[in-house]
Design goal:
This protein is of the alpha+beta class. It folds into 2 domains: 85 residues; 189 residues, BirA Bifunctional Protein, domain 2, CATH 3.30.930. Helix content is 38%, strand content 19%.
C-alpha cells in the first residue's frame, strides 16, 4: 500500500494552513471522518495480498495516531489564541464566572468495539460488513444449521414477514430474518473471494432476549481465517494474544470443548474472573471463570456450500459479544445500562 508518506506530507501542509477551529474540524473530517482519506486507506486493506496487510495496517495506525495527536495540539493552541484575542479586545470579561459545559465522550460499547477492531487489524485482519436483514440461507442453512435446529425457534429469532395482504401464505415461515449473528458475512465473503482469507465482521445482531445480561439488539464480532494447513493451534495462539491485548497479559485463559453447528471441533473460551481473581464470586457463580468467546475449526459442510476444496483448505472461526466484553472490562453488572441513556452512567466513561 503506497502513498502513506504522501498522505502524511499532505496532512502536514493542510495543518499549517489551518487558522481557526472551524477549519481544524474540516481537517479532521477530511482525514479521520467516515469517508476520510485515512478511513478509505483502512478499507482498502482487503485488496492487498495477505502478506502485505499487517505492515500496511501498522503504517496506517501510526499515521492515524500522529494525526489525532497533531489535531489535539492545534486545537489547544487555537483555543488559547482565540481566547487571548477576545480578552485583548475587551469582548470577554474574564472576571465573570464561567459556565460549565460538559463535553461528550465515546459510548463504552463503541470504545471496546473500536479497540477490538484495532487489535485484529494490527494482526493482519481486514474488516467486512453485511446486511442486518438477512436471508434464512445465509443466517442458517449455509452455516450447517438445519430446519429443525433449536436456533430457528421463534423465541430466539426475529422473522420478517414478507407476505403482502391478499397475497401469499401469511402462516408460512419467512425466509427473511434479522440476523442472529454476523456469521452470514463469512458466507458472503467466501462466495466472492478465494483463500487465503483473514477478516473480522463486526456489527449489530438481533435475538428475542431481554434481561440483565441480554438485549434484543447487541453487537458481535465474528472472525474467519481460511488457508492451507490452518490448525487449531493457530486458533488458540491468536485468541490468547487477543485476550491478553484486550485485558492484560496475565489474564488466565482456558479452552473448553463445546458444540456449534458450523465448527468441528468447537470450543468455548473462558478467562479468569477479573472481579474475584479466580477465588469465586457471584458473577462467575463460584467457578472463578467467565466465558467470553466461542470458536472452532470451520465445518467441511460450510466450505462445501461456498465451493471450497475441503481436502485443500482448512480454517477457523470465532465470535464474541461486544457488550459482554465491555461489561467485564468496566465491571458493569447490567447490560441494560448501555441503552437507557442515563447520563449518570454515561458520564463515567
Amino acid at each position: 500500500m503506497g502513498g502513506i508518506d504522501r498522505l502524511r506530507e499532505e496532512f502536514e501542509r493542510d495543518c499549517k494552513g489551518v487558522s481557526s477551529l472551524k477549519q481544524l474540524e474540516g481537517l479532521r473530517i477530511k482525514y479521520l471522518g467516515r469517508k476520510g482519506l485515512l478511513t478509505q486507506r483502512l478499507r482498502a486493506l482487503s485488496a492487498l495480498p495477505p502478506a502485505e496487510r499487517p505492515a500496511a495496517g501498522k503504517e496506517i495506525n501510526v499515521l492515524k495516531r500522529h494525526i489525532e495527536a497533531e489535531i489535539k495540539r492545534r486545537e489547544a493552541d487555537l483555543s488559547a489564541a482565540e481566547l487571548k484575542k477576545k480578552a485583548s479586545t475587551g469582548f470577554v470579561d474574564i472576571t465573570v464566572p464561567g459556565k460549565y459545559i460538559p463535553s461528550g465522550s465515546q459510548h463504552p460499547v463503541n470504545r471496546v468495539l473500536e479497540e477490538i477492531v484495532e487489535i485484529f487489524v494490527f494482526m493482519g485482519f481486514t474488516v467486512e460488513e453485511g446486511p442486518e436483514v438477512e436471508l434464512d440461507y445465509y443466517n442458517f442453512e449455509a452455516l450447517n444449521i438445519p430446519r429443525d435446529h433449536p436456533a430457528r425457534d421463534m423465541q430466539d429469532t426475529f422473522y420478517v414477514r414478507t407476505d403482502v395482504e391478499g397475497h401469499g401464505d401469511a402462516g408460512a415461515e419467512s425466509d427473511v430474518v434479522l440476523r442472529t449473528h454476523t456469521s452470514p458475512v463469512q458466507i458472503r465473503v467466501m462466495e466472492r473471494q478465494t483463500p487465503p482469507l483473514r477478516f473480522i465482521a463486526p456489527g449489530k445482531v438481533y435475538r428475542c432476549d431481554a434481561d440483565v445480561s441480554h438485549t434484543p439488539m447487541f453487537h458481535q464480532v465474528e472472525g474467519l481465517m481460511v488457508g492451507e494447513d490452518i490448525t487449531f493451534s493457530h486458533l488458540k495462539s491468536l485468541l490468547k494474544l487477543f485476550i491478553h491485548s484486550l485485558f492484560s497479559p496475565d489474564t488466565p485463559v482456558r479452552f473448553r470443548p463445546s458444540y456449534f453447528p458450523f465448527t468441528e471441533p468447537s470450543a468455548e473460551i473462558d478467562i479468569g474472573c477479573i472481579l474475584c481473581r479466580g477465588e469465586g464470586c457471584r458473577v462467575c457463580k463460584g467457578t472463578g471463570w467467565l466465558e467470553v468467546l466461542g470458536a472452532g475449526m470451520v465445518h467441511p459442510k460450510v466450505f462445501e456450500c461456498v465451493g471450497y476444496d475441503t481436502e485443500r483448505y482448512t480454517g477457523f472461526a470465532f465470535g464474541m459479544g461486544v457488550e459482554r466484553l465491555t461489561m467485564l472490562k468496566f465491571g458493569i453488572d447490567d447490560i441494560r445500562l448501555f441503552y437507557e441513556n442515563d447520563l449518570r452512567f454515561l458520564r463515567q466513561f
